[in-house]
């Protein structure tokens, strides 16, 4: 068991190191040497877990789709909103997440590995479909189309925000995005009870940290 736990930790160290290097330099410019230097471990240890830079990139992308922090709520729409806000909150704090976006928008990396955007669309569609079955969405709303558009909008907001000389807070930007979208999709009684505050993600993470301590 101790050996297995050590192997899991070592694999995680390499993924974190690769993510940091991919995020800082892009896929093509990233080197195994730089990743090893960042990880502080041996080449033999790396090749025990990953056979190539390509496999490391695939490993980083596999970590990209995460609903960590999202907990069951009265409304499925709140879970959908929480997922987007939490991702925006975690992105600048977690290299694995930011690197996954860097790899997704890099033309060469995207050609090699694809992206995880389809997975995000599926998760959103499932939540929105259940929300519609519960009567939370207006009748005209198509869950799949809405999920696809919001994944695209979220990604666009993130990329534009990142490129600005003085980047605004990403969580606040995603909060504003929902303020624009939700009135056109959500029944009024539910809309009034949804929390899209830019402070919600930080509160959720703080509460979970306290509960885990």
From TrEMBL:
<keyword id="KW-0238">DNA-binding</keyword>
<dbReference type="GO" id="GO:0000976">
    <property type="term" value="F:transcription cis-regulatory region binding"/>
</dbReference>
<feature type="DNA-binding region" description="H-T-H motif">
    <location>
        <begin position="31"/>
        <end position="50"/>
    </location>
</feature>
<dbReference type="InterPro" id="IPR047923">
    <property type="entry name" value="ArpA-like"/>
</dbReference>
<dbReference type="GO" id="GO:0003700">
    <property type="term" value="F:DNA-binding transcription factor activity"/>
</dbReference>
<protein>
    <submittedName>
        <fullName>Regulatory protein TetR</fullName>
    </submittedName>
</protein>
<dbReference type="InterPro" id="IPR001647">
    <property type="entry name" value="HTH_TetR"/>
</dbReference>
<dbReference type="InterPro" id="IPR036271">
    <property type="entry name" value="Tet_transcr_reg_TetR-rel_C_sf"/>
</dbReference>
<keyword id="KW-0805">Transcription regulation</keyword>
<keyword id="KW-0804">Transcription</keyword>
<dbReference type="InterPro" id="IPR023772">
    <property type="entry name" value="DNA-bd_HTH_TetR-type_CS"/>
</dbReference>
<dbReference type="InterPro" id="IPR009057">
    <property type="entry name" value="Homeodomain-like_sf"/>
</dbReference>
<dbReference type="Pfam" id="PF00440">
    <property type="entry name" value="TetR_N"/>
</dbReference>
<feature type="domain" description="HTH tetR-type">
    <location>
        <begin position="8"/>
        <end position="68"/>
    </location>
</feature>
<dbReference type="InterPro" id="IPR050109">
    <property type="entry name" value="HTH-type_TetR-like_transc_reg"/>
</dbReference>
